[in-house]
Amino acid sequence: MVPRESDFDDGQDPYPRIYAYCARAEELGFDFCTFTHHRFSPERPFLSSPFVMMAAIAARTSTLRLVTTVFVLPLYHPLDVAEAVGQLDQVSRGRVVLGVGAGYRQYEADAVGVPFHRRVSRMTESIEILRAAWTQDTISFHGKHFDFDDVSVVPKPRQRPHPPIWIGALEATPVARAGRIADGWIAPSLQTLDTLSTRAALYRDNAREAGRVPVICLERDVVVATHGDAARAAWMRRNLPLLEYYRSQGASLPDFPEGASERDGFAAVAAGCAVAGDPDDCIAAIAYARDVMGCEYLQLMNLGDGPGSGHRGNYETELAALELFGRHVLPAFR
After folding, report:
1. pLDDT one-digit tens code per residue, 54-112
2. How far apart are CA 184 and CA 168, in angstroms?
3. Model pTM?
4. Rounded CA gap, 268 and 286, in Å?
5. Of 22, 42, 118, 300, which has the fewest CB atoms closer than 10 Å, so is most exposed?
6. Are residues 21 and 310 in contact, defined by beta-carbon separation less than 8 angstroms?
7. Which residues pair with 198 in a beta bridge?
8. Beta bridge partners of 187
9. CB 275 within 8 A of CB 257
10. Long-range contacts of range 146-149, CB-CB < 8 Å, 24 or more positions apart?
11. Half-sphere exposure for 108 (CA within 13 Å, toward CB)
12. From CA 49, how far away is CA 38, in angstroms rounded?
């Protein structure tokens, strides 16, 4: 029996809702769940330690893959991350994908003494160290940011040669970098398919030149409901404030006009970006996105009309949307 809102004792505690939501997603046949990451951000404090959350979900599921989209890698020493992810991959029996990014919030880097302007080169070195730490008995490294000799990282991950490392990237230069050094690219939700299809070609070219098999995980913010107009209106209510929030944090969003409002209409603001409507609308939008991008994975963000699963007050709505999508949309892609 799926827990309902009334089954939770503490109305302030988001974690039991998250556990129940992920367990039900696995039952419905979803492949993976994702965990974002920010530090020192009081608006969503439970996102600061994604590996802890992923371990809790791993203990309550058996097939659901656990993906960070994205972990801000430059904020940490890569040996710490190598140990944590190696342990998590063992605990979950090989279900981890480490999605990373350079970060865009300077206050996070300032708080831990990381020069913000050096975050990209720090991330690049970190990825090199992670691969070596997971595949070699003992490693040494001497770079711009990290310097050590004869370190043995244990436990090694269960996956061989190691958990996939994906990079989230928006602009052309970071996307090309993802092709060269990562095992996959996370294509962001707040870009249109027109922009992303060009980026996808760039990513694949760089991946193949580097001898890598290209893998794309396309993010789309989703609202599914029995009535398409209600779903599209809900998408606008959620994402227009989100766009302004990201801009206030320094994110570049060239695909969306500043000051966009609901008066501009869904087609003007969300075309080529949203998946929103009734189940048939969602099937059509996902199939179109898959055909345009040729993506291997699709990350569905939220599903319901609230700010995201796990928040007080919208668990029932998110669970109903999960059920609707799992029963009426997901089978079209199996």
Report:
1. 999 999 999 999 999 999 999 999 999 999 999 999 999 999 999 999 998 999 999 99
2. 9
3. 0.92
4. 19
5. 42
6. yes
7. none
8. 218
9. no
10. 146/77, 146/78, 148/79
11. 20
12. 8
